[in-house]
Design goal:
It contains one helix and six strands. The protein is mostly beta strands.
Length: 78
């Protein structure tokens, strides 16, 4: 039920920052980090969700970074 404000012009991944992603046919909001081998690590602030490690080839095919989250409103946390 939260709302987020994100900057569509800020799509370059900075480790540990929160981004809006198009992930396949859906959308996600995750903290992103890149590994040295090019894999993308998706981290949720909600501890009940484990980190996802997406190999570079799959990330290029299935993930589009839409922008970096700048603000949110609601009861959930970032």
């Amino acid at each position: 039920g939260d709302s987020v404000l994100f900057d569509e012009g800020d799509t370059e991944i900075k480790d540990g920052k929160v981004y809006v992603l198009r992930y396949g046919d859906g959308f996600r909001i995750k903290r992103l980090s890149k590994r040295f081998d090019g894999a993308l690590i998706l981290t949720s602030d909600n501890a009940k969700y484990a980190d996802e490690v997406i190999p570079e080839e799959q990330a290029a095919q299935f993930i589009q970074v839409l922008g970096r989250v700048k603000d949110r409103s609601g009861s959930g946390g970032l």
